[in-house]
Amino acid sequence: MSRRILQPGEIEALDHTSFPRVLPPHIGSLFSTRAARLRQLAQGNPIADYLEFAAHIASAQHQAAQALPAPGVERSRIERAQAHAMPLFDAAELLEQPLHDWQQTLEHILNTLANQTTGLPAALQPLIAELRQLPSDERNAIARQLLDKDLAARYIGMAPFVMAALQVRLAQLAATLHATDLPALQPATVCPVCASEPVASVIRIGGQASGHRYLHCGGCATEWHMVRIKCSHCESTQGIHYQTIEGGQDVVQAETCTSCGSYRKIVNQEKDPLAEPLADDLASLMLDLLMSETHFQRASTNPLLYVAVAEEQTPS
After folding, report:
1. pTM of whole model > 0.85?
2. Distance CA 271, CA 268 (A)
């Protein structure tokens, strides 16, 4: 029997056939699963009230995602992205025709939250009412500032509601795609669907994805594979280390990189099968506080915690 030595490129090609390269979101369960996990993580957590608030938003997102029709993606856009190894679109395109109906999603979420009689803090109802009354152009301006990470202080309280609507629309769109529709990006540090940054990475269990690390998009919730030995921010394979809270269960760790000086959370379903990247990242704020005492900077923010970051940066 003759044998042939496989070259690196051939080995990589074989490896890609053994597990999914990309995992589109499951829109039927994405937000309901996130809401349940947030409520579970709120128990005994120092930021329990905020996690419960985020759970209410996720539940409203689930209702909107099921009630409103999903946008489609033109085949020409998919072919262009594949030809140029670029994301299908930029998240900011949601603010333009013909995808500007993200505001219909916002209305649905606000109506759901306004009709809740328990759980949601009463102080938020005037804020919801104000956002409902804003003209379309001003809402678009808030959304653009959010996506540009340059939100004006007067809009801080509205940020989680606007981001929630954008997430629903992006996830609905991503859920209509197949893994074969999406290009392999180089560098692979942004989402192949909407060009957003990953909020965290996750080690998956179950099926062919089991044991593999995926980056989880903070916008559309698409996940794409990246080997564990690479920094998810700069793709360096040197100086990768893991930090955790002493005495913790290591479900969430901070993956640090000495090459670029950044860190990003890695969530391990092998340690807890119920772990959900965005929820577990949000609930592990204590780890972020500990990391703030080091020289490592967080590579990207949690979309539902942007309000807290903005408040810290706003002069008193």
Report:
1. yes
2. 6
Fold of 183-313: FdhE-like fold (3.90.1670)
Q: How far apart are the first and last CA of the chain?
A: 76
Do 24 and 177 meet the contact criterion of CB atoms below 8 Å apart? yes
CATH topology match: 25-175 vs 183-313: yes
Q: Mean per-residue pLDDT for 50-70?
A: 95
For the chain, the average pLDDT equals 88
Three-class DSSP category at 268: strand
Domain ranges of the chain: 25-175, 183-313
Name the E strands within 148-273. Answer: 198-203, 213-217, 223-225, 240-243, 252-257, 262-268
Nearest to 221 by CA among 163, 180, 278: 278
Query: Which has the higher per-residue pLDDT, 123 or 67?
Result: 67
The CATH class that applies to domain 25-175 reads alpha beta
Contacts of 53 (CB under 8 A, 6+ apart): 120, 121, 124, 160
110: Cβ–Cβ under 8 A, 6 or more apart, which residues?
128, 131, 132, 161
Q: Which phi-psi region, left, alpha or beta, contains residue 85 (left: φ > 0; alpha: ψ -120 to 50)?
A: left
Give 140's contacts (C-beta < 8 A, 6+ positions apart): 95, 100, 103
Distance, CA of 223 to CA of 75 (rounded, Å): 21
Mean per-residue pLDDT for 74-93? 89
Dihedral angle computed from the Cα positions of residues 120, 303, 299 and 45, in that order, rounded to the nearest 10 degrees: 20
Q: Which amino acid is at 313?
A: Q
Paired tokens of 15: 């490896």
Cα–Cα distance for residue pair 91/257, rounded to 1 Å: 27
